[in-house]
Specification:
Length: 342
Amino acid sequence: MLSRLRDTQVLYFSPAAGQLDRSYLKKGKKVRPNITAYTLPPTWVPVEETYGRLFRPGQRKIGRFIRSVAARHRFREPLLWATDPRQVHLLDLLDYGGLVYDCDREWEDLPLDWEGCLAGAADVVFAASPLLADRLAPCSSNVALLPNGVNFPLFSRPSDLSYDPLPQTTGPVLGWAGTIRPELDLEPLLYAARTMPRWTFVLLGPQGEGNSLLPRLRRLPNVVLPGGCPMAQVPDWLYRCDVLLDFLRDDRTCDDLVSCRMLEYLATGRPVVSMLWPDQIEPLPDVVYGAHSDQEFLTLCRHALDEPPNFAAQRRRSHAAAASWPLRCTQVVNILTTAGLL
């Protein structure tokens, strides 16, 4: 979305990959004509706020780095865009003319007052779902609903399959795309793959360490783990699948949030089967098959494979088109302009 704010210069700061990461010593990388990306310096020891003598030096180090980069780019009192409650500790260390807090998840692992203070200090708070907006409403009178978006042209254009990622595969293909994190619950996939050996299951994306089910999935001949690929190739994989899958993450419990992954799935028009929390109401019942158990997941995968061609494809694409990044960007510009921040 930031790349579409073409008249705005953006400095993007990402956290260090670890305590030995020295990427912050490199020059900023021009990732878009208007966006320069930097890596923040690591803090030596991740400590809690209560250990002030250890905690504050790390925050000051990050603050100095951001101020130095901003001065080098001749930024004066810029708009500060925060996405993590931990960034509340930088507010007193930086000069800025406006503050936005962009919330796309619940932060149950962090102290509530961090997010409360950040939201309270922000000129505008963006919330990615109605539940998140309700949660933040007591902290700010300027909460705006801003759901996730999608690169609709990239994912809605059918692949010609001139590049077939699975040339030797016959039979139904069911796929998922994303980073395989330790918190990702792949139990429904394991159950389905063991029950339906003639189906092929694809887990596309980087394989983070620590997911306890990955070793068992690797041993199954009908599970394909190709690793990551460039974003431009992801649609080729999605269109190769007959059904697209979505799973729960144990660390993400906000049950009305429509993820970017889900919007990418919908843009293809392919049938989608998604796992839901036990008491969760289906957020997109007209276009997504929602399962509450491993057995129901398998049953709905069968229904999705039997779905008549184009039965709900256009409705799925319409949902995604309404969330395209240009439309989201227009919303953001209008809100920030009204607030006097642009």
